[in-house]
Design a protein that fits this description.
Helix content: 40-55%
Shape: elongated
Number of domains: 2
Structural class: alpha/beta
Strand order of the largest sheet: 3-2-1-4-6-5-7
Distance between the termini: 55 Å
Strand content: 15-25%
Number of strands: 16
Length: 550
Amino acid sequence: MKILALIPTYNHYKALPSIIKRLIQANMEILIVDDGSNEITHQTLMDLLQQYPLTLLPLENNQGKGAAIHQGLRWAHQHGFTHAFQIDADGQHSLDNLQGFMDLSSNNPEALISGQPIYDQSMPLARRIGRWFTHVWVWIETLSFRITDSMCGFRIYPVDSTLRILESKGIGPRMDFDTHIMVHLFWQGIPVVMSPVAVTYPEGNISNFDVIRDNWRITKMHTKLFFTMVFNLKKILSHRPNYKTLDLPVENTHWASLEERSSLMGMFILAYCCRFMGKRLCMALSTPVILYYYCFNKIQRQASQDFLKRAFSRAARPDTTSSLRHFFSFLEMALDKFGAWSGQMTFDEIIYTSPTTFKDLMAQPTGGMLLVSHLGNMEFCRAATCLEHKNRLHILLHSKNSQRYNQFLKAFNPLSNLNIIEITEINPATIIYLRDRLSQGDWVVIAGDRLPPQNKSRITHVPFLGIEAPFSQGPYILASLLECPVYMAIAVRDQANISVNLEKLDDKIVLPRANKNNHIDKYVIAFSQYLEKFSLLYPYQWFNFFNFWK
């Protein structure tokens, strides 16, 4: 495998020196295709040729970005390169993860590796809207959500398969090229793997996009692609890309490229609807989905009815629509979570019902443990807080859930540092690592209302809503080993705000050998009473949709 850095340019010269320098540091061979640029760009290229070992392929007249890439791919093929790493010359794309992209391509040489842009606030609104329409059309044309952005000019092409399409199909030579070639590659069974890349719009950046002509070209392209898809549907469906054989690590891959994605696809669609249409309209449009799940998920429906019956036994009796309202409350929680991870909802919408706040905990010199539950939306606090605090939270999950949860979070914040630790089996190395992080002021987050999947012996039965329920001993045993303060935490929706309560369980959990179980029981009872108090206040925000007492 041999990768060439392919840079098409037309009057872009300001960012070229810094781009070339980074590529040289990555030991990449470089080809610049000058698509009939002006004199100042030509002079910059001549200076770069004197400084660096690179190749320049000049085109006499401007032929368009697509035509420049086509010529570059031909040159790459003639000189023995198997892959071409297209990098736009305007400097919009971060080059921090060059090696990650090349590793993905090396492990999956038959795939097209493409950037999944992560934009900052510099992106113009008109660009966001225009890209959104193209995304929707591509999903229709490919009958798939695999391609989450078809316009990113940061991608690695397999040279041979790309040239076969370019030589046989009428691929657009200008700004319609990136989307056009990607859809055709997908139709030919070439997997498209999306990987996150940070994108900025530098000040004074020159755009070669002609609003009238290029939008007309893109419109014609989508019209042609749509009718080509309709009239060749059988053939296209028979050449679907096979993602099951790919080697796709979660940390470098957008979730849409992964094999197990059915529920994530639903969350992706729901999140985008919420972002562009607002929470209320999204809830209204999601009504058929909730009704479907309510009618056809008997186990979850029965669990909801059983819980509400116990929760309302001390207050008003639930009516026939209570369980359905419970399902809609779960939808609202999910939309709040989407809003927080996408930046639409912030920490300003949090109110506290306790003297201690989340910022107070973060200000302490050493960390501790947060004992949370599936009542309410504690994840909102993590999503809405600042990046510095996010990186100081270590989420403990069982291994069967950790990868899916990681994929879910990366769908909304792909570049964040997600500190997820699998806790199926805690060993001394894990304890040493966590104690070191706590000494630096970090916090461990663990759910106290879920049982361990394997070790059924470390379970305590205590009263919860009038009947004994099983609770895991694990969080309290772990806290005793970490020798740290433990806080119980609840976050619930209270009208227009998220209401948070933080209550200290103990400064340090000590479990003497003589009566260890009695001490564990004391802490479990304290947590169950805390959980019960808020379950009675907010019964519709209980999101354990299974028989909690079995």
